[in-house]
Amino acid sequence: MATRAVYTFSGFPGLPECNYYLHHDGYPTGAALRFSAALRHSCEATSFLTSFLNTQHQAEPLASKEHAADVEYRYFVQLLLGNDPRLQVQCWRRLPEVSCWRSRCGPMALIAFIQRFFPCDQP
User: Fold this and answer.
1) For 45-54, how does the pLDDT look when each residue is reduced to its tens digit (9 = 90+)?
2) Is 122 part of a structural domain of the chain?
3) What is the DSSP code string of 36-95?
4) Prediction pTM value
5) Please, which of 10, 28, 73, 87 could form a disulfide with 110 given CB 3.0 to 4.6 Å?
6) Domain-located, residue 69
7) What is the pLDDT of residue 63?
8) pLDDT in tens, 31-44
9) Which domain holds residue 96?
């Protein structure tokens, strides 16, 4: 059974907010594995979106996060710029019996998310 998710990225230099749909492994453990793979590709916060796309070849671009009506999870990854650029993530889940989104976690540091949902895989 597929667990679909939309990943929204914001704050990356020169890029507008963008959304990507992935058909499977959208639960938090699967997302943590995807995020960890992107960080292993490049640990630079400012290049995280590029790394994510380089490691998630099946990611489909969406014009809006609402364009994927069948998703169960949504992730919002934001680059916070400053002296020390860092990444934070928020997660929401939509339960089958309700149509509204419920906060699952965050906002929290991306590394903390990975440690929480897949502690044995460290970037």
Assistant:
1) 999 999 999 9
2) no
3) HHHHHH---GGGHHHHHHHH-TT-EEESSGGG-TT-SEEEEEEEE-SSS-EEEEEEEE--
4) 0.91
5) 87
6) yes
7) 82
8) 999 999 999 999 99
9) 5-117
